[in-house]
Amino acid sequence: MSDICDVSIEPSDNDSQLSDSFSDLCIYDLDEDSLLEVFRYLNFNQLLETSGVCLLFRQLARRCLRKIRHFELDYRAFMNDFHLPRIDVILGNIGPNLEAFKFSGGFIMNEDLKRTIVNDVALNCASLQHLTINYVELKAEHLVALKVLLSHLTGLDLGRCALQDDTFGPFIEAASHLQTLAVPGNASLDGSFLDVWQSCAQLEQLDVSHCYSFSVGKMEAFLAKAIRLKAVDVTACTWLKKDKQVFNDCGRDVALGVELPVFNYFKAA
Description:
single chain; alpha/beta; Leucine-rich repeat, LRR (right-handed beta-alpha superhelix); 9-stranded parallel β-sheet; 12 helices; 9 strands; disordered N terminus
């Protein structure tokens, strides 16, 4: 038994030639199927970096990345890790296949980065259905850029974005497919934006909780337009005595409380 274990096999000339042939191989010599198999071992950041090598690599990288349909952008990671790919590289590769995008920043944040994120989402996410932006001050210029998405969005969450009726109204009036709208924590909204929103027939849920200036009385006329609205959250809004019958007198059941869609987001590490 020991003799068998001690036997060593000398490499043949054929083995040596085979080894030499493999050492001369370059990744560009691999066919598309073989390359794709290699790409499947790469992580998110590596795929994004590889996508910049050539057109074929970009196509293969995007084939691997297209399974990402729900993506959350981590603002703090981008501020602290300079090795992460640029925003335009990320959204340029995954944006066309995204169904849901989430971004939570901060009121004190880099304005250029905010503008870049907003513009790249608008430019690259042509199939987006759900957009969530929280804790980011959205001014008129940001809303104008995002307006293009309203032609296909079914869910929108702009919670705590310091929205104003005079800029949010012209924005939201273009939303004709929204089924859920959440704008909680926008203390300055008084509800005037509902007056100009005529294409709201698809809306089913509305969250205006903690919009302290929001007048619940504005809901009376809006309910006549939003014929599918079935759930509203008006917690901590402004109620007058006469407003208590608004939801009872609309001719249908409207629940006080919403259940907005919840997604499992992929987050770049």
